[in-house]
Amino acid sequence: MNAPESAQFDFFQQWYPIAPIEDVPDRQPYRVTLVGRPIVVWKSPEQGFVAFLDICPHRLAPLSEGRIDEKTGNLMCSYHGWQFDAKGKCQRIPQSDRNPPNEKNSQFCATVLPVQEGQGLLWIWPDEPSSHLASDRPLPLSPQCDREGGFVWKSMVRDLEYDWSTLVENLVDPSHVPFAHHGIQGNRDRATPLAIEILISTPDLIEAKSEGRLPSQITFEPPCRLEYALKLGENRQLGLVTYCIPRQPGQSRIVAQFPRNFAKRLHRLTPRWFNHIRERNAVLDSDMVLLHYQERYLHSRHAGQTWSSAYVMPTRADRLVIEFRRWFDRYCEGKLPWTLEQIQAFDPRPRPREVLLDRYTQHTQLCQSCRGALKAIQYLEIILIIAAIGSILGLVALPNVAGLFWRLSLIFVCISSLGGWSWLHYRLKPRFYFKDYIHSEH
Fold it and tell me: Which of 95, 126, 432, 436 is the most exposed place for a label (fewest CB within 10 A)?
């Protein structure tokens, strides 16, 4: 089912989830770039989460570098101390004798953006002129993230070094999983032909189904919700819900949820950070270098050459990629709404692997669970070093008449402490910072 041509798709008049709510700090401002626009999110003691354009009206300093005033609960700019309430009104100018300033002067106000919470995610409408439309537009929520239906899920967020269109194209291509994610989520030796059938294709929805070892329903609700629904037998259901966020040229963000209606006890017992470092970041790492270079090669194609002539896609496994690219060409003219300045600021040169696979900047800093685990590891390292040094000093200080038991005990404490410290420092902690992914070694 195909739809007729329509007006160009509007990327600004949409709801986007910027992060799981548990990862958004409630005591300090949180900066995010959404469709090329800098946004600051902060939590008002009275009204909850609030979003402004990240620009102070005074001298254009970033409000995300400010702080939430303990006395007033307002967001204070760190440049000159201007304060803004949850409605964006300037409540205090320290350099002025009149506070609050003239409420009728909108030049003093911060630009407020609509905010909602839904399914554990924080959603933002990035277009202030159309804010009046936001309340009538439902959030693109997933039917799989339904606690009343018996589903449980964990979530994650990560910034990516490739564009929104590359992210969507990759996610609508399940045939890459056995190869790009071999040993993590797939097995190249068990790969089989994969047939994809397009069920619906309209300006607002693309649905498809894939056949194979795990038949699945694939839904893309532009611009961000892209999910897989899989049935494991009659009663077990497994899902992958992703939200593809355009940040700026060459950069995107993925907010993902992993719902299922079975193994609920394991879900409760497994820490969220462990799930991230064991599997989720590894999956994104195994895609990162491939997609970053693919995007650069596509952008550097000869003048007049399009994706359809640059790619060679002869199988039914590529049908959804083709359908998405056609949708992107038909309704978006094959481009995102970047300004000329944003396009000119884009550096087309490939990034080094240390930048592409920088887990700390792309994920750990954004994830409350991983930040907390990393801090706990750092404290535990200090405790183990102190224990090792203490046991060595204890051995030196032991009198000659001390028994063999006490000497062996202190030696055991020293060796165990140093061994535990080495495992934390060289094996576990690097997974929060950087882990190179070389496909030829998997």
Answer: 95
